[in-house]
Amino acid sequence: MTQAQLDESVDYLIKRGFEAPEIGIVLGTGLGQLVDNIENPVEAHYNHIPHFPLATVEFHSGKLIYGTISGKKVVVMQGRFHLYEGYDFVDITYPIRVMHLLGIKKLFVSNAAGAVNLDFKKGDIMLIEDHINLQGGSPLAFKGVSEFGERFVDMSEPYDVDMRKKIENIANKNGISLKKGVYASVVGPQLETKAEYRMLKILGADAVGMSTVPEVIVANHLRLPIVAVSVLTDECDPENLQPIDIQEIIAVANRTEPKMIQLFKELILEI
């Protein structure tokens, strides 16, 4: 990644009409319906954007969509990148840097995750308050990172407190049950063993997934306020663990997504 490559990506998108978006949104597995709420959408497929990685997961559609939601200009990533697809951390977070250079001032992130906290149930939404990085690396661990921002990034409060409070108030007002907790990010793509779920619980994780943390680290590197939610798609009880069904995970994400969309739309209105 070079500044010239980032500039080339940004120039392409500006020529496509991606003009001064205020909010960037990253959509997780099974969470694509938000794009139906975008007014006057303009699309750019990842394989057409210079220097962009390509989405390889079959249920990630792989495009940036620009338009308006709740009266504000947004740019939405429909389909993200993961370590388990063979990308490195710089690839995974390249789109965050591009959206930042386009002008976004806030970043919203969503993911599908497994509930490690057994008080949380399938179909719940969890507001991420903190995270544990178990992916074995960092998107800032490369030569020349200081050309893009401070090398040693403070992570004492990686998720924006003000936006978290706003999203809690929105949930209360609309009668949406909103859990709060710690998200653990692992490499994947295999799901966890019973012993690994026990370990995650001991470490203090409430939910586990295979994304989000690299994007959050880079957002903090860019001093970009971020809010993130997990849609909990399965219950990870090591004492009663059932074989996983990816199609069911996606179905639960689809059923829960309207609540997440409501939270995001009203948060966009308020900020």
TrEMBL record:
Keyword Glycosyltransferase among record annotations: yes
GO terms (BP aspect): nucleoside metabolic process
Gene Ontology MF, one: purine-nucleoside phosphorylase activity
Annotated protein name in UniProt: Purine nucleoside phosphorylase
Organism: Flagellimonas alvinocaridis
Pathway(s) per entry: Purine metabolism; purine nucleoside salvage
Record's keyword terms, sorted: Glycosyltransferase, Transferase
Enzyme class: transferase
Family: Belongs to the PNP/MTAP phosphorylase family.
Nucleoside phosphorylase domain mapped to chain residues: 23-268
InterPro entries in the cross-refs: Nucleoside_phosphorylase_d, Nucleoside_phosphorylase_sf, Pur_Nuc_Pase_Ino/Guo-sp, Purine_phosphorylase
Catalytic activity, EC: 2.4.2.1
Function: The purine nucleoside phosphorylases catalyze the phosphorolytic breakdown of the N-glycosidic bond in the beta-(deoxy)ribonucleoside molecules, with the formation of the corresponding free purine bases and pentose-1-phosphate.
A GO cellular component annotation in the UniProt record: cytoplasm
